């Protein structure tokens, strides 16, 4: 199933060395070869780690029992949420940075771009659950950094200190509640199911 807060990737401003990459959406970067470690003395940047992560997802089965498309989609959302920090070394991204991302997600609506060019893009506020999902995926991004030995395990674990948004304590609205399937629908479906 699709994630709650879908959006198209943006092209954030990056430092001069990455300006060419910034003109392309994340989806295009997936086909690029994995970059070498940054020459920056502080280590690999978030943008460089993002390219490695996307490349890893493209080449491997997704963890947590989800299909690759879903993992790729979620990864793109997390990377796009980090756009203000793309040029930052991963070692400098901490809990305050993650709180800033979370706060921006609360304030920034989702813009869905219709396939029909004659239709106008629609915007809607992000749901609380959708924001929590993106923040959780950012934590997974840093766990991948631990796997690549460019993020220390304590650094990745420290991001768990950022609490999820809690119902009625955030400006973000709740997602649509899923209603149970009607008994009539279940009874009508049962005769068509294979015997177990």
Number of strands: 2
Low-confidence stretches: 6-41
**General shape:** globular
Major sheet description:
2 strands, antiparallel
Tally of individual helices: 8
Sheet with most strands: strand arrangement: 1-2
- The helical percent reads 40-55%
C-alpha end-to-end distance? 26 Å
Structure, briefly:
The chain is mostly helical and 196 residues long. It is 42% helix and 3% strand. Strands 1-2 form a two-stranded antiparallel ribbon.
Q: Could you describe the 3D structure shown?
A:
By secondary structure, the protein is mainly α. It contains 8 helices and 2 strands. It is globular, with a radius of gyration of 19 Å. The relative contact order is 0.14.
Task: Quickly list its features.
two-stranded antiparallel sheet; 8 helices; 196 residues; mainly alpha
Topology:
Layout: H1 19-22, H2 26-29, H3 46-59, H4 68-81, H5 95-107, E1 110-112, E2 122-124, H6 128-147, H7 153-158, H8 183-189
């Amino acid at each position: 199933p699709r994630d709650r807060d879908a959006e198209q990737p943006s092209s954030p401003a990056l430092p001069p060395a990455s300006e060419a990459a910034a003109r392309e959406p994340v989806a295009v970067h997936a086909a690029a070869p994995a970059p070498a470690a940054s020459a920056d003395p502080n280590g690999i940047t978030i943008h460089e780690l993002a390219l490695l992560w996307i490349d890893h997802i493209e080449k491997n089965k997704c963890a947590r029992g989800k299909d690759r498309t879903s993992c790729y989609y979620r990864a793109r959302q997390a990377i796009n949420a980090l756009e203000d920090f793309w040029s930052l070394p991963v070692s400098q991204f901490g809990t305050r940075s993650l709180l800033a991302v979370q706060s921006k997600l609360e304030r920034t609506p989702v813009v869905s771009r219709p396939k029909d060019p004659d239709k106008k893009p629609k915007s809607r506020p992000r749901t609380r659950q959708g924001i929590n999902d993106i923040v959780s995926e950012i934590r997974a991004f840093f766990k991948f950094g631990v796997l690549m030995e460019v993020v220390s395990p304590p650094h990745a674990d420290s991001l768990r200190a950022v609490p999820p948004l809690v119902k009625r304590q955030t400006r973000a609205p709740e997602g649509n509640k899923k209603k149970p399937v009607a008994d009539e629908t279940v009874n009508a479906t049962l005769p068509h199911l294979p015997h177990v």
